[in-house]
Specification:
The chain has about 110 residues and is mostly helical. The chain is built from four helices and two strands, in the order H-E-H-H-E-H. It is globular, with a radius of gyration of 16 Å.
C-alpha cells in the first residue's frame, strides 16, 4: 500500500489535472478444481483470496479518497452466490477469460 500511495502521490504532483480512477481487485475462485495439481493450486492461492482482496480493495479506496481520485468497483456480475469468481469466467480461478472482462467493461462504461 505504501508503494501504491507513492505512485498516486507522484501522479498528483506531476500531472495534477489528470483524472485518475482506481479500481477494486477482481474476485477469484478459490474453491473450484480447474484440473491443476494440488501444489499448483496452493501456490496460486497462497497469497490471494477474496477476503484479502476485499481488505486491500478497501485500503485502495481510502488511498483514492486521500488523493481525490475516483474509486471504482467494477466487479458486479462476476461472482457466484458464494462470492467466488464464476467458474465459467476463469480457466484457473485467478485469471479471467474474455467474458469476464466484457462484464468489467460494461461496469466501466459509465466512467468512460
Amino acid at each position: 500500500m505504501e508503494n501504491y500511495d507513492q505512485i498516486l502521490s507522484q501522479i498528483q504532483a506531476r500531472l495534477p489535472k489528470t483524472a485518475v480512477y482506481v479500481m477494486a481487485y477482481y474476485p477469484i475462485n478459490e474453491t473450484t478444481n480447474f484440473g491443476e495439481e494440488k501444489g499448483e493450486h496452493k501456490s496460486l492461492f497462497e497469497h490471494r483470496g477474496n477476503e484479502i482482496n476485499a481488505q486491500y480493495s478497501q485500503k485502495v479506496a481510502v488511498l483514492a479518497e486521500k488523493h481525490g481520485y475516483t474509486f471504482i468497483n467494477a466487479n458486479a456480475g462476476l461472482t457466484d452466490e458464494t462470492g467466488n469468481l464464476k467458474a465459467d469466467l476463469t480457466f484457473d480461478g485467478a485469471h479471467m477469460l474474455p467474458d469476464g472482462y466484457e462484464i468489467v467493461l460494461d461496469n466501466l462504461l459509465p466512467y468512460l
